[in-house]
Amino acid sequence: MAAQMDPDAVAKAFVEHYYTTFDNNRVGLGGLYQEASMLTFEGQKIQGVQSIVAKLTSLPFQQCKHNISTVDCQPSGPASGMLVFVSGNLQLAGEEHLLKFSQMFHLMPTPQGSFYVYNDIFRLNYA
Question: Is Transcription set as a keyword in this record (predicted)?
Answer without folding.
Answer: no
